[in-house]
Structure formats: structure tokens, C-alpha cells
Fold these 3 entries.
Entry 1:
Amino acid sequence: PLPGAISPASDPDFETGCLARRVSARVDFPVSRNYSPRSGTRRHPPRVRWLSEGRAAGSHGCVGHPLPASAMLNVTTRGWSVSLPELPEHTHVYRNHLLNSTHWDLFVPRDDDIIICSAYSAGSTWVQTIVATLVFRQENLPAPVMELSPWVDRYSHGGSVEALTAMLDDQNHRRILESHVPLNALRFFPQCKYIVVARDGRDVFMSLWARSRNYSAVALERLRAAGEELGEPWPARPDDLEAFWAQWLTESSVAWESDGYLYGSMFQHVASWWPYRELPNVLLVHYRDLMEDLESQVERIAAFLEIPVRPGRLPGLLPGISFAAMSDKAEDILGVHAQDWRGGAESFFARDSVGAWSAALDPEALRLFDAALTRNLEPEAASWLQGGEAPSARN
């Protein structure tokens, strides 16, 4: 039997349904079953075609990707035993001045799409730049990163969501998309690759603090216009860092979160992905790991995306995708979105270092953070969020 995937018995072609997740799978097993998972031989591999809620969602190869028991549903039908991944459910909608998760409702996936997911100010722009460099296999990209890799669930795109989807349909390269909503607000596509980026929440806050005070007149007008549509004005932000910190950790814009006011709970973003971190199309990447060992992290990302990198090629790419290069290339990364920041494109990366919070927050303030961390995350997830390092041997 294939490890953690399929055990052939008598019937080589069947369908089975799983009511718990409204998921069905069709397993196509070729006549020749000569497959050796231990030696890595991949002759005539089986394929699983996922059907979610009656809609074809593409194909997902089980070979080489045994799924963990913790994420499986075991189903036996007509003599076959199949382990089906328990797919994430779309249960929440985020719609505020910054976010609109319903934009994903019109999204039509391709089998090789890459979706980069993070909480607000957690490092997604850096990873988008890395991934775009790998996809195009060059440092000089054909367009700004923010245009090549649009933020799909952004509330306002300066046009209709239909225009956004049309633009995505016209892209003829491997698509790279960005999201800032938790997994439970996304439609999950097993054929797409998800890179989940996280960062120590204290560093996230320092970045949010800087950016909340750096909105340009253009950005503020867009936020005011969103407020008129929502019937809720864009609120004034506290001028005091400690007041902003307390509000961020104790207030929420939605009933099912207890923190992350306006920007969404960073803790709940991680919590939504954590149970699915070992699915073969999910990769968790930590900001600190990128800072401390960029080369090995880029190798991880390239391997996950199945993008071959010629021996000796990666060291030549690293200077152009390092953290230091982000400010130097800020205009090339942000493009037209540079107008959203009063200090220009370079100011977007001004407070994205590691550890700046230690000089700004006292022990009493940090106790609020510890309480939110404990309230939202299990110990292993909390430890990874603060310290980094790969959470799974598979990754």
C-alpha cells in the first residue's frame, strides 16, 4: 500500500463521499501498479481527483506526499481503503475597511497557483518578492511585485473585483496571489500551493504602528470611501504607542476574535493554518528564519514549489531578495502602491527589522501580549510564532 494514501484491493475505479466535509474523491489507478515508495520509483502513480461540494477542484498526486494521520479521514468503500485529507472549511467572512474575503468567491484557480497568506504586516511582501524571483528565474522582474502578485482580499482595488479577476485571468505566467485573511475565510484548493508567512507578533505590532501613522492622503481617502460604503467611518488611530498596543491586543472588529482590531487577529491567522501545516500543499515560513538563514529558506520554498534551481545559481540571486534589498528596491516592489505611503515606497519597509519592540514595550505591556498568545494558540504553535524554525520535519 502507498504510505498514508491508498491501499488497492479489488476495484480500481470508484467514487466515495465523505459527509463530514462534503468531499468526494475519485481514485484512478493505472493497470500497472508497479510502485516503490521506499526507492522513490514513480511508475504509473495513482492520482486522486478531488470534488468539493460537487465542483471539480483539480487533481492532487498522492505519490511522494504521505499525509499525516492527524489530518486524515479513513474511508473504506467497495474493498478499498482510502485516507482522505480533512479539507479546511470556509466558515467566516471578513469585510471591513481593509479586507473583503468574498473576493475569493469569483476566483477560478489554476493547478499551479501559488497563494501567499499572512496576517497584516507579517512578511508577505518579502516572500512575494522571493517567489516572483523564483518563478521568473531572474532578479529584474517584468513588473512591480505588487502588480504581478495582487492582494486578492484587499477591500478596495481601485476598481471592481470583476476587473481584478479579469486581470488574473489574463496573466499567462504562474500566478502568485496574496491573502491577509485566515484559512477559514478562504476557499481551499488542494491543487494550489499555499505559503503561510508568520512573524513574532511583537515585531508585527511595531510594523503596524509605523504604517498606521504613515498612510498618505490617497490611502486615507480610500479608507474613508470604504467607510462610507460600509456605513462605518474609518476610526481615528491612537497617537500613543501603548494605547495602540492595548487596543490591538484586546479589541476586535469581528465577534469571533478577541484581538487584532481592524487588521484581523494575527494569532487566529496562525491558529487557522496550524492544524493543516503538514498538508502537502501547505508550507509555513517564519520571518525570523528568513532573516537568519535566507539561503536555506529560499531552497525550502523552491523545493516546495517544485522550481528547480541550477547548482550555483542561488547565491547570485540572494543579494537581490535579501531584507536589505527590500528598501533599495521598494519602488520596483510596490509600483503604483507606493502612493499609499506618506514617506514613499522606502518607508513601507522602515520598521520591518527583528526585535525593535524590546526598546518600546515595558514588561507590563508585554503581559498583554502573553495573555493573547496563550488565549489563541496551543503551546507548540505559540513557540513557533515567537521563535521560528520549521514546525514540521516534512517541511
Note: Residues 217-230 form the longest helix (14 residues).
Entry 2:
Amino acid sequence: MSRRALGRAVERAAAWWRASRAGRTVNRYSAANGGLLAGGIAYSVLFSLVAVMTIALTTFAGILGHNQALERQVERQLSSWFPGVLKTGGDGLVAPNSWIHSGALSVASAVAAVVLVWSALSAMGAVQTGVRAMFQLDPSQGGAPWLS
């Protein structure tokens, strides 16, 4: 095959790719900074998960009291769901006991609840912004005002 024939074949393949649904999707995703939008959504959701875990562990500790065996079982399960987050005998970011406070309704619980609501609304706002950007819709139109 000559260089010219190879060049035409590559051009036809590239034209076919650009015309395909997958090619148009990748092109639109790149043009609208899809990676940046997805990263923003993931960042907002991560804050929500931290607040949920804080509230859940505090509530769990308040309900269980001092049942050490059940606490360790829950810690192991959370470590399997979120590897590398909880310190359970090895590497991890946060010791589970540091999230558990003596009173169910403490300042930490109130702050965690506020952070949860704020971060959940921010996550929904990030999803709204990302979807509107992907579909080239005016960001000022539609949606709940607190999500904008």
C-alpha cells in the first residue's frame, strides 16, 4: 500500500469516527470540558459522603452504646466500602473513634448536618451545571434557585 493510499484510508477512518455517535460524544465531552465538570461533581459528592459518614457513625455509636464487637464489625464493613479512609489496624486517613462524640446532638453533629445539606445542594448544583453545559443550555434558565 502506498503512502497516499494509506493517508486516504486514515482520512476515511477519521471521518467515519467523527461522524459516529461515539466520536461525536467524545468530541462534545472534550469541547465542554467534561472532565473538569465530572471532577467538580465528584468533589461535591465527596464532601457529602464525609458528612454522611460523620452523622452515621455518631448516631451509630449513640445507639449501640459500647458494644465493641459490633463496632469493629461495622468499621470493617465501612473499610471494605471505602478502602483507605478509616484506620482499622493499618493505613487510613481517619481513626473511627475521632468521629464519634459523646452526645448524639453535639456541635459536631450540628456542623455535620449543615455541611451535609450544603454539600448535597452543591452536588446537585454541580450536576445541574454539568448537564446544562453538556447540552449547551443557558445556565440562568430553569432549575431551583438555590442550586444555581
Note: Residues 34-64 form the longest helix (31 residues).
Entry 3:
Amino acid sequence: MKHTRARLFTLVTLAGMLVHPAATQALEFPNAPERQTSRSSVGGARRGGPSPQIAFGGRYNPGACSAESELPEVLMPRDRIQTKASLSPSWIALIPASNRAERVEIELVDQESNLTLQTASFELPQSSGLVEFLLPELSTEQSDKVYRWQLTLECTVAGRQRSESIWGKIELSDLTPQQAAELNNLRTPRAQAEFYANNGFWNEAVAAMLTARANHPQDWADLLASVGITQPDMIEAPLAGTVQAEQAQSVLHRLFPALTMSR
């Protein structure tokens, strides 16, 4: 009788698992290793105390082209270092409704040589929301390096040219042959986002999950929350569009220490 009850219990348990499958593990980006943060991030504090969003990037002149209560943001991990599985730099930024800028300039600087590799100008979409910025692909010898970047919004207020900037770092590398083979077998954006997140590639994880968030809103929220992004305006912002550089110049010049892009 005991054995019969035990078998019955096992069958009921298995049936329950089929009816109520185990919950999918939350989509999270792994904790980044401790890295030294830039002193310039302190300069991004708002009046009245440090900005609650300072973890997402250093700032210069916040509120010059937007309301101080609704600043533009770049989606990035807490240590402000993005990671990308290709040599094509990209950023996803929240451009708020209060934004007065019509153009954005992005500068990419080699962390080791302190030389500017690219500067690019972008025209912003008409609508506010999440905007993906794409720069031209770098050469293969520039792989596996950390680059500093600065995203500057340019506007005209009361007849005067003004600008505000966000900056951080991005590491560009290539997938290994094994990673490329594994990725090739993944057919859905949700599965690809999980692959990129598990392998530490932030930019592709966010881009893939952004295309799948309509069907997986909780996974999108979980991915952002895993790096500290919990503001509803960032999680729920619509995709305003993807923009490519109107002008992309390869520039090799030494940056002056007075510029806002500190090492």
C-alpha cells in the first residue's frame, strides 16, 4: 500500500509540473567586476544632492538642453562600462520629451593612447524615447580594447548655443568561434538576449531584448533592474528610432586634460 501511494504521489507531482511548469529564471546581466570609477562622475551631481541616476554615466552641464527633472540617459551597467560583441560601437539612450536638442555628437577615444578615433554627428528623431546610435565599424586591430565616449546634445536656447554631455566607456571585442556557433543556433531575440547577457555583452543583450520586450515585458524590466535601472520612464519608454552617423570622421588628436572626457 505504501508503494502504491508513493507511486501515486509521484504521478500527481509530475502532472502538476506539466500543468504548472517551473518559472523561467529572471533575465539578468552578471555583476561587473570592480573597476575604478572616473572622478568626473561626481561633477554630474544636481543641485540639492547627488543625482540618483549618476550610476549610468558621468555628466557635464546637465539640464542645458533638457529639464533637470528629466535628463537624457544612456542605458549602461553601474560601472559605466558597456561591452559589445562586435567592432561596431553603438549606444541606446533615452531622449526625454523635454529635450530641446536637434543634434547629437558622439566622440570615441582610445583609452590607452588618448587619441580620438571617431567623431560623428546625428540628427535626432522627431519623437522622444529610446534612440539607438550607430557608429561605423572599427578595424580588427582595434578589438579587445576599452574606449571612452562622450555623447553631447547640442541645442539653441534664447539664441545661444548650449550643450550637455554624458560619458562612459565601451569595450569592443569579437565572439569566439564557440560563442558564434552557439549564437547561430538561437532563433528568438529572447534567447539571444539571454546568451549575450550570460556572456557579458551588454549592448547586444539590451538591443535583442528591446525587440522582444512587447512579448516579454518582465524580462526587459528584469534585465534593466539587474544593473540598477528601475525608473518607469526608462523601462516603459517607446523606441523612437535608430540613427546612423551623418558624418563620421576618423580623427587622431591629443585630448586636452580640461576636456570633460577624463580617463
Note: Confidence is low (pLDDT under 50) at residues 8-23, 32-56, 251-263.
